[in-house]
Amino acid sequence: MKEDDDLRSKKGLTMFGGLKKVAGMMHGGKKEQYGVSFQLSDVVKSPRVPRFQVLDALVSLFCRSNISAETLWDGGWLLRQLLPYSEAEFNSHHLELLKVSYKNSASALVKEVRGFWPDLLITVLRNEWRKCKRAMESSSPPKEPKCILFPHQIFFSEEDIPEGSSFAAGERMHELVKVFVLLHQLQIFTLGRTLPEQPLIYPPGDVSANSRAKTSGVDLSGPKPGTEVSLVNAVPCRIAFERGKERHFCFLAISVGTSGWLVLAEELPLKKPYGVVRVTAPLAGCNPRIDDKHSKWLHVRIRPSSLPVLDPAKFNAYGKLKTKALVDGRWTLAFRDEESCKSALLMILEEINFLSDEVHTRIKPLLNLETAIDLSSPSVCDPEDSSSQTTPPNSL
Predict the structure, then answer these.
(1) How far apart are CA 217 and CA 207, in angstroms?
(2) What is the DSSP code (8-state) at residue 383?
(3) 17 partner at 20 to 30 Å CA-CA among 10, 56, 178, 208?
(4) By C-alpha distance, which of 63, 367, 309 is closest to 173?
(5) How many Å from the N-terminal Cα to the C-terminal Cα in the chain?
(6) Other CB atoms closer than 10 Å to residue 140's CB: what's the count?
(7) Is 270 exposed, middle or buried (0-12, 13-18, 19+ CB in 10 A)?
(8) Continuous segment of H or E residues that includes residue 228
(9) Which regions in the chain score pLDDT beneath 50?
């Protein structure tokens, strides 16, 4: 056992030195936040760095809100390497600080439920859970030691996100999820529990019989262009996709589980009240608003159906977008009167609330640590379901 601990300590020394350097820069070279001083000569004399120094330095890192998820994951790997069987060595101060960081991260995650990308939040949580677990249990660090000093990703704050941009918001959501997943897995580790293969997420709820999706005839796969839908709840509108070429449609906002769509359908004159779906766009992040000067006009943002940050082909080696052509689309829907416009707005807001509430309900086990520990049954971690898949791309 001693030989194993020595080997793990040696493997983690380089990474630990880098993390200490980060901590030192953050504290201006002064004594550590928890009263721990560190000398490189300590490492030279003995490869077994005192465990309380390691814990204090790493807990200090995990409590930081201005550190990239990449660096925090490196710290998580080091912790698992140096303390593989030593969960009892976390004192009450360490545990309390980690719990506070976890709760703060959970609060930030809850805000994303009402943000730009709630329809993909569960998918990202699942993906990053698997990646984080694999990285923490790896025999080698996730990145080269020097990378922790120069992380390529930037942690976006609300001030950094240009108004109306879903792309920067997607990067922020991705970063927040990675931090939350790490802190959640660290909580499980401090209790000496085994990490589950999947995050604890409730299975999908039942679709209400009187929901717009049911009455419109839309199933879990969503409205597909060219398919028929009932227009009982639809609102007639006009929109021009090209200058001078205005088209008439019936507008619908529909949500099914954690997915949602804005739908433009053409009415079938010989088969009322049915129509054919012509255009679809994601419901989440559409940010509807009535025009200030034209009360019959409704503006909606058209966000991508998938997260660009999750597509490596769109990014260079430094984590920056290769093209500046990625911008959100816009629809301006013109209705026949003010009441129709308000009705369409309320329909969108109601369906967004249904979608967000479903996401929040399903991730509740992750937001409360006590619940997450109690719900250890594999049945809670449901497999990928169709309601959490990405929405279909915009189409004409």
Answers:
(1) 12
(2) P
(3) 178
(4) 309
(5) 64
(6) 10
(7) exposed
(8) strand 228-230
(9) 1-2, 4-14, 16, 18-38, 40, 42-48, 153-161, 317-318, 323, 325, 376-381, 383-396
